[in-house]
Design a protein that fits this description.
eight-stranded mixed β-sheet, globular, binds nicotinamide-adenine-dinucleotide, 2 domains, alpha/beta
Length: 312
C-alpha cells in the first residue's frame, strides 16, 4: 500500500543503494534505482546482489525498477545519491563521482524536487560544491525551485543486526520545510528513529567525525598492542583489567579497513586545511592503523616458528 506521495530515485547501486531502493520499493515509492554500471542493473533484476546486502528473497519480493538510462530518473521527485567517495593517491577526497552524479541528477530535476546526498562528504560539500552543479545542469534555483538535504548512511556491510531500518537516521535539509519532508520520507522506512540535524553541515560533519573518532580509538588500542607484545604483556588482559573502570572505552586491537573508517579522517582533514587549520590529531590514527595489516602478517609468520622452538 502506497503511503508516500514522493517518488524516490536512488543514484548509485553499490553497497548502500540497493537497501535504500528496496526499502522504498516495499512502500511502492521507488521510481527507479539508477547506476552507470550496466552489469549492476542487469544482475539485480535476476535477483543477484554481488554485495550480498540484499538477499535473493528480498529482491524476489518486489519488482525493483533499475536502469542505466539517466532519462528514467525524470520519473523521480526525491533523489537519493549513494555513489562512492574514495580518496585519491594523495589521500585527498575524490568527489568526481558525486559531481558526476550531481550532473546526471541536475538534468532530471523539475520544480519542487529534492536531492538528498547520502554519500560521505566533508562538511560543506553539499551546499558549496554540489548545489552549483545541480543549479547549472537544471537551470533551476536551489531554495526556490529545487531543494537539497543530507542524510549520512551508517550501514555496515555484512552486519545483519544494523540495517537501514534499524539504525537511527540523521537527516537534514537546507530549510525547515525541506527538513520536515526529508524526515517524513525517511521516517516511512526507518523504524529506529529520525534525528533532525539543524543544518546540512552538521549532518555532514556528524558522519565524518563518527568514523574519525572510531579510527583514533582503535589506533590507540592498536598502538598499545604493538608496545605490549615485546613487553610480553597480553593486551586483552590489560583491556579486561582497565575495562573494569566505569568510564574506560571498550575498543579492541584489529584491522581497520572498508569504505569509511580509513577514508573519512582524510575528508575531515581536507576541509580543515581548506580553512587554514592543520589538524594534529585527526590523521594520527591512520599512521598506526595503516601498518597493522603488515604487523598481523609478520605475527602470523613468526608465531609458528616460535611455537616450534622446543621448551627447555
Ligand atoms: N559501504 C559501506 O559500508 C558504507 C557505509 C556507510 C556509508 N558509505 C558511503 O556511501 C557511499 C556509497 O558507498 P558504497 O559502498 O555503496 O559504494 P560502492 O562503490 O559500493 O557503489 C557505488 C555505486 O555507484 C555507482 N556509480 C558510480 N558513479 C556513478 C554515477 N555517476 N551515477 C550513478 N551511479 C554511479 C557505481 O557503479 C557503484 O555501483 C560512499 O560515500 C560511502 O562512503 C558506505
Amino acid at each position: 500500500m502506497r503511503r508516500l506521495s514522493r517518488k524516490v530515485g536512488v543514484v548509485g547501486l553499490g553497497y548502500v543503494g540497493p537497501p535504500v531502493a528496496l526499502a522504498f520499493g516495499k512502500l511502492g515509492a521507488l521510481a527507479v534505482g539508477f547506476d552507470i554500471d550496466v552489469s549492476r542493473v542487469e544482475e539485480l533484476p535476476l535477483y543477484f546482489d554481488r554485495t550480498l546486502e540484499a538477499t535473493e528473497a528480498e529482491l524476489r519480493s518486489l519488482d525493483m525498477n533499475v536502469s542505466a538510462n539517466a532519462d528514467d530518473l525524470r520519473a523521480a521527485d526525491f533523489f537519493i545519491v549513494t555513489v562512492p567517495t574514495p580518496i585519491d593517491a594523495a589521500n585527498q577526497p575524490d568527489m568526481s563521482t558525486v559531481f558526476a552524479a550531481s550532473r546526471t541528477v541536475g538534468k532530471a530535476l523539475k520544480k519542487g524536487d529534492i536531492v538528498v546526498y547520502e554519500s560521505t562528504v566533508y562538511p560543506g560539500a553539499t551546499e558549496e560544491d554540489c548545489v552549483p552543479i545541480l543549479e547549472r545542469e537544471s537551470g533551476l534555483k536551489c531554495g526556490v525551485d529545487i531543494y537539497v538535504g543530507y542524510s549520512p548512511e551508517r550501514i555496515n556491510p555484512g552486519d545483519l543486526e544494523h540495517r537501514l531500518e534499524s539504525i537511527n537516521k540523521v537527516v537534514s535539509g537546507q530549510d525547515a520545510r525541506t527538513l520536515e519532508i526529508v524526515a517524513d520520507v525517511y521516517g516511512e522506512v526507518v523504524t529506529a528513529g529520525i534525528h533532525k540535524a539543524p543544518s546540512i553541515r552538521v549532518a555532514e560533519a556528524a558522519k565524518v567525525i563518527e568514523n574519525t573518532q572510531r579510527d583514533l580509538n582503535i589506533a590507540l588500542i592498536n598502538e598499545l598492542a604493538l608496545v605490549f607484545r615485546p613487553l610480553d604483556i597480553d593486551t586483552s588482559d590489560v583491556l579486561a583489567a582497565a575495562g573494569t573502570k566505569w568510564n574506560f572505552l571498550k575498543f579492541t586491537p584489529g584491522l581497520v579497513g572498508g569504505h569509511c573508517i580509513g577514508v573519512d579522517p582524510y575528508y575531515l582533514t581536507h576541509r580543515a586545511e581548506r580553512e587554514g587549520y592543520h589538524p594534529q590529531v585527526f590523521l594520527a590514527g591512520r599512521r598506526v592503523n595503516d601498518q597493522m595489516g603488515a604487523w598481523v602478517a609478520r605475527e602470523c609468520v613468526n608465531r609458528p616458528a616460535r611455537a616450534s622452538v622446543p621448551e627447555r
